[in-house]
Each structure stands twice: as structure tokens, then as C-alpha cells.
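README: folding subset

This subset contains proteins for which both the sequence and a predicted C-alpha cell string are available. Records are stored as plain text. Below is the entry for alkaline phosphatase (671 residues), shown exactly as it appears on disk.
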Amino acid sequence: MFSKLSIAATALAALSAPVAGQTYRRLGSCPSLGCVLPPDQADFLPGQLFDLRVEVHAPVNGSEAAHDGKPDEKFKVTIAKDGEKPRDFADAFGLDEPKLEKWDFQWYEDLFAEDADKPSVVNVAAKAYRKLALYEPGTYTVTLSYYGNETTTAEWTVRDVSKERKAKNVILFIGDGMTTNMITAARLIAHKAINGKYQSLMKMDEFPVIGHQMTHSLDSYITDSANSASALYSGHKSSVNAMGVYVDSSADHFDDPKVETIVEVFKRVHKGIWGAVSTALLADATPAALSGHSRSRYDYGALIDQALNGVTNFTWTKQTGPDVYFGAGAEQFFPNGNSYQGKDIYDQFADKDFQVVMNRTSLLELGEDDKALGVFCQGNLPVWLDRNVYTDNLKGLENDPAGGDGDALDLPGLTDMTTKAVEILDSRKGEEGFFLMVEAASVDKQMHALDYDRALGDLLELDDAIRATIKLLEERGSLEETQILVTADHGHGFDVYGSADTEYLEAQDDERAKRRAIGTYANSGESQYTQPRNVKYGTGANFPTDWEPRYAIAAGVGAHPDMRENYKVHKSPRSPTVRIGDEYYANPEDGEGGFVTNGTLATDEAVGVHSLTDVPVYAWGPCQDLFQGTFNNVDIFYKISECLGLGVDEESGDGGDDGECKTSRRKRQHN
Ligand SMILES: *[C@@H]1O[C@H](CO)[C@@H](O)[C@H](O)[C@H]1NC(C)=O
Ligand SMILES: *[C@@H]1O[C@H](CO)[C@@H](O)[C@H](O)[C@H]1NC(C)=O
Ligand SMILES: *[C@@H]1O[C@H](CO)[C@@H](O)[C@H](O)[C@H]1NC(C)=O
Ligand SMILES: *[C@@H]1O[C@H](CO)[C@@H](O)[C@H](O)[C@H]1NC(C)=O
Ligand SMILES: *[C@@H]1O[C@H](CO)[C@@H](O)[C@H](O)[C@H]1NC(C)=O
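--- output ---
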């Protein structure tokens, strides 16, 4: 009965909100004037720590203006389990009533308001209930009552997750932005086919189970890497640019209601260890979301601090630190304006017993026994194509990981970093097992730059890292106890639609005539990237033998700025556009001899953007069958939790002898 009532209330609230469902919103997770975060439809792992934020909005002006701009300060919050009698929220958790907070914020209702610079102003009254946990599986109804007769309800589900462990370790490979279309294109350029049959395959192709992941954000159907990673790691959807939190309307990035991530639960409750490997900045969204809690993925310095030391200024779990942390983004580590509070973060890691390495030679020399930090350059790691084929591009980058202006030339690849991480974690894991996330970040970064060859090179490097990991685990006798997953966080609208005769294209003067060089259907021919005639790179099996064939793949994306295309490999990294005034135009120095196509994006977009597509999930290991079918990105968190037996009950509880979990332990509801 209770749930019927709450559905009616939610529907009413949605109808009465004049701009609900528009792309510009007061607060995406909050269609009515009362906000409950975590919102309706949220799922929880039993015992997973989280905060509750409630807000009451009083719009001062704009289409929603109401209540004279005075928010109700006497709102009430209750919680009810499975239709039981609602209880006062603070009471149910044995908390003192939190203090009332007040602020205001502004938002634009649409593009006309933005052009006219007429923001709508909203006054807010709010409270935060911090560090909570629900242990009993079931449905919980949280109700915020305000303005006398209005309510906002949220139905929460605490999922029934097994306490029985099926795998000891989990390795989660993420090809950032990687789609099935990209995997298909990578296979085409790296694996030879005879009469339509591939003679070798991607390692991913050998995985026994494949699933399909929906990447929709909490409040937008095109996602970004922060909230999508956060969904994979925490089982909670969030909003663009946010990780480990639900986005509230306050200005402070760090006071938003937090949710605990897989590595935090795994370490706090189960004493497992974890690691992260990325070709991006370690502060970038995909690695940072493992341990980060901020509404802005750009709080780079603070996110690295959170990885090592836990969340500053809140009593939240401090047991977050990785055992292995390999990647790039040295500017967040040597003391400078980008490192947290200007401090030497290398020193902080060393003080916590990490071996610190800054080049490939030292990485390979690391033993298996110690925790390790490896940061190999400033900025993102140069991509596989530049590290292995067009190596002159490594010169002049002034990306010395120690902070000098020299070039970082002794660079590891993803396979080097991954196999070393596996050795260390597998050796240090004890009975508790390990969780490792490995990200091929530049699949996404190069797709943004419309540099398809660089993106596919890094996708092939990811496949190489997967191949090497499986071989290494087998040699170490750890393969059978390890669940291996390969997936993505979102995609780009990329595909190959034929081949392009680059010589014919270049020889034509007329832009329209150039398009005749594109061979479709029968004229696409066969892959020229795997021909033995031009084996000059020595980059080994499972990579192209020739990156500069006459007949190149004709590929493109659905979302792009104005651009010039000639389909040839870019011998130096691609810059598709130039800025003139506030707009971007096709870069006259890019795609020489090619033809210009009009963009499909706003003219202030310099690069391509993400798309809606579902992404694949490949599974190999003791829990592989859990990953069949079509499911939500958040389900990956619950499937991994099921596989590792992360369900807890009150008795085994927090496992914390650190006295940090008082709120959730002091007095539990509904038992
Ligand atoms: C709302 O009020 C603010 C502050 O007075 C003003 O700047 C803004 O233009 C107003 N917005 C609308 C939509 O009237
Ligand atoms: C609440 O009461 C006000 C004032 O009587 C009324 O205008 C409004 O429609 C009511 N809202 C709901 C959701 O019942
Ligand atoms: C923590 O609190 C201090 C003092 O109020 C403040 O300067 C700092 O910015 C806060 N840090 C974070 C990450 O919120
Ligand atoms: C690699 O780093 C070590 C210190 O860990 C240093 O002694 C060595 O010179 C570096 N090698 C190169 C090629 O930069
Ligand atoms: C398409 O490109 C041409 C040539 O640059 C330009 O004149 C035209 O305005 C563009 N069309 C749109 C819709 O942007």
C-alpha cells in the first residue's frame, strides 16, 4: 500500500514541475521542490556506507517561483522498511538530528535564459545524515515532507548479496569509450583474414561469456567517465562529472552525499587489497573514481589525496589506500600548484611504505613484495602508436615525471604496468584476495580527437595486456581463482564503412571528387594493415604490420566538429580543429589533401563527444555466468560483490576495529 501512495506522490510532483524532463534542470536528481539523495530507485549493498542529503527548494524567480523564495525549514524525514510504520530518520539510525544548512544557487532554464544571462535563483534549506548503512535486504521507503502537504519519496532496495565467496580476485579491464564497433575495427587491422575467416583473434574474442551494459547516467542518457566509472564501482548512478557522490545543489564539491565504492568495502570489511593501472592521469575519472568522492572530476589534487588518505574533513572510511598505483599525471605528485596543497605526494606515498618508480627500467626491476607507486610522465601517457611506431613524437613533450622539463622517454606500456601490478597484488594478497582495475584510457581520448588509428592502437594494447595477464595468472597458478572482466564505461559513435584509396583521394583537386575514393561494399576490399609487404614496425603479433596502407579503413564518428579527412594515419597526434573567435573550424593543417565535412555538434565544440550505445562486457572466471544478458552499469558492482561474497550482516558487520563506523553500528533499525 505504501508504495502505491508514494508512486502517486512522485507522479504528482513530476506533473507540477514546469520544466521537468528538460535538458536544463534545477537539479537533475530532483524533479520536485524536495530532494532525497540517494534518490528513488537507488540500490545498496548490505552494509555499504552512504550519506543521506535532503534539500527543500524555494525558487525565488523564474517559471517555478514559489513560497516567496522561503524554503520550509521544518521539513521531516522518515524511513520505513517493507511497508512497516515510518520512523523518524535520525531516530532510526540512532543519530542526533543534523544541523540545518542554508544556501542559494542559480541555474538557467533554457538556452534563451542563458543567452540573456537571466539565471533563476533558488533558496535552499538542507540537512545531511552521514555515514549510514543498511544491513537487511529489502525495500526501504524514505519520505521527505515539506511545505505542509508536499512529499518526495524514494524507494531504496538493499540487495540480497551472497556472503559466500566464489572468486578470490577480480581484475576489471576498462577500455575507456570502447565499443563493439571499435573492437571489430581493431580486429580488422591487427588480425589477418583469409577468404573471410580470421586466422587469429583478439584475446577478448576468446572470453566464454559476453553481456551488454546500459550506461545511462542518473539524470542524462549520455554519460561521462566519472559517473559511469562510479556506477561500475559503487552500484549507484550519478551525474556527469561526479564520482562517489550524488550531486547536491551546494557550492562545496566535497559535502555531497557519498556512497562507498567496491575497493573501500573490500578493504574496510574484508581486508582485501586493491590496485589501479591507467594510461591516463591517475587523477583522471576512471582510476580516481575507485576511491574518490567529489561532484567534480577535475578536483585532481584532492582526488589523489583521497586515494591515499581517505576523504578529508569527513569521518568516512580511511582504509582506502591502494597497494599498486601505476599511471601518469606526475603534475599531481611532485610539489607544485597541481599537487594537493602544493605538497610532495611522492613523499607521502613513500612514507606509507610504497616503492616509488618513474620509468620503465625501474618498474621492471620492482620486486613483488612491496607496495608500489609508478608515475611515468606528466599529462597522459603517450599512446601506443607514438611509443612504438612514431617515436619522434615523444621528443619535446617536457613531461619528466620528477617535474623537470626533460622528456620522459623510458616509458612502460599498459602490458608492462599490468603484469607488474598483477605480480605484486598476487604476491601480497594473502587469504583476502585482490581487486585490480586496468584502464586503457586513450581509446576514449583519441576517439575524442578523431584520431582513430591512435585509439585502435591503444585498444590493441589493452588486448595485449589482457592476453599477458591471463598467461601470467596461469603461470602463477592463480587463474582459476580470478574473475576477469573486460568492459567499457561508455562509447563513441564510431564505425568503419569501407576503405579509402588514399592515393586517388589525394590526387583529386575537387573536394566532391575526392569522395569517389571511398570504396563501399564490394569495393571495400580486404584489410591492408596485415599484409606482409610492409612489416617495418616490429611491434609483434596481434598488431598491424602496416599503419600506412594505400587502402586505409574509411571510418568516422557520428558526433564531430567541422573536420578535414584524408583517412591516412596521423604521423603526429591529430588536432582536428582550430579556434577562431569562440568557434572551432576544421584545422587547415589536418588531413592534408582531404575534404572538409560540416560538423554535427555546436560550433564551440573542438572535438568529438560520447554517444548512447550500450557497451560489451566480457567475462572469464568462476563467476562468468553472472555477466550474461543485458543489464545496467550499476549491476556490475553487485555482480562483482556477489562473486567476492561481499554481502555482510550486522554480526560480521564492519570488521572495523578502528572505531570509525559508530553511526552505522550504534543502533540499527528494524531488527
Ligand atoms: C532572478 O533574480 C536574479 C537576481 O535578482 C536576476 O539576476 C535574474 O535575472 C532573475 N532571473 C529571472 C529568470 O528573472
Ligand atoms: C498544498 O496546499 C496548497 C495550498 O493549499 C495548494 O495550493 C497545493 O496544490 C497543495 N499541494 C498538494 C501537492 O496537495
Ligand atoms: C577541509 O577543511 C579545510 C578547513 O576548513 C578547508 O580549507 C579544505 O578546503 C577542506 N578540504 C576539502 C577537501 O574539503
Ligand atoms: C630510471 O629511474 C631510476 C631511479 O628509479 C634512475 O636511477 C634511472 O636513471 C632512470 N633511468 C632513466 C633511463 O631515466
Ligand atoms: C557547412 O560548411 C560550409 C563551409 O565551411 C559553411 O559555409 C556552412 O555554414 C556550414 N553549414 C553549417 C550548418 O554549419
